[in-house]
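During the second half of the funding period, the structural biology subgroup turned its attention to how the target accommodates small molecules. The most pressing case was adenosine-5'-triphosphate, which had performed well in the primary screen but for which no bound structure existed. We therefore specified the complex as follows and requested a full 3D prediction, including the ligand pose.
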Amino acid sequence: MRLEDVRLRYRRGGPWVLRGVTARLDPGEVAVVLGRNGAGKSTLLQLCAGVLRPVRGRVVDRPHRVGWVPERFPADQPFTVTRYLTAMGRAAGLGRADADRAVDRWTDRLGLAPFRTVRMPDLSKGTAQKVGLAQAMLRTPGLLVLDEPWEGLDAAARGLVPELVDEVLTAGGAVLVSDHRGETVRLPGARHWTVADGLLTDEPATGDAAVAVVEVAVPAARVAGTVARLRADGHQILRVREPAVPPTRAAAPPAPVPPAGAGPTGDPTRDGRAGEVAW
Ligand SMILES: Nc1ncnc2c1ncn2[C@@H]1O[C@H](COP(=O)(O)OP(=O)(O)OP(=O)(O)O)[C@@H](O)[C@H]1O
């Protein structure tokens, strides 16, 4: 998803809350939105979720399925928890049986089972907030947007938030979450989007985040170009490996890692076979 020069004010002639925000969030990424009270965090999240539309600029490539949990989940709805969640599951495209299963699963997981037959307006704020989380997760979203998700939740439910985030990321989705309590520490590997003066500063995940090794196979002719691109994107190249050789041939020594800045030309592994890059 990309935000291109997004501007928003709440009324014509009013002050710009966001005055030219450009940012990008890729599948598998999580960004924590930071900023002082009134900086525009909720406004930004609502734009990303599609709840608000930019006055100028645009939001492109928003995933089709968005899970949106506002800071205050609106519980003043004349349904029981089960009826509400089942209707939300159906609205998200689940068949009746799948919707029932998803409601059972998420009410169990979030400790909502005792409240299934309780009417929404009778819920406490924290319990209503859990219903908000459940409705967003009934069908794994391509983009999960959580506005201050730790607010009002009990300790057990707060501990669940990183698990939900992980599930969305593992399924190839992206997550945006605002935080003014400093709970960000629970999401190692998150980018930091800081909103101030109507603008956004995007900082990549800090270096103390967990690091994973990804191995990919690429055509040998594209090894140097791939390595250069990965380096340009800030990834660390650990090794470039020749493909397994047929038994009749002597094993080739590992190919050297092309130096930083090396382009696709002059690549010693250019022989049309596949090479493997680990980064
Ligand atoms: N519906 C609205 N109509 C008019 N102004 C609004 C509306 N919603 C927010 N604002 C104003 O926009 C600015 C940004 O508000 P926003 O709620 O996005 O900030 P925030 O960073 O999320 O704040 P907080 O940390 O207090 O939740 C504030 O000045 C706020 O008063």
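Two results from this model are relevant to the next phase. Helices lie at 41-49, 81-91, 96-109, 125-137, 155-170, 223-232. The chain has two domains: 2-203, 215-278.
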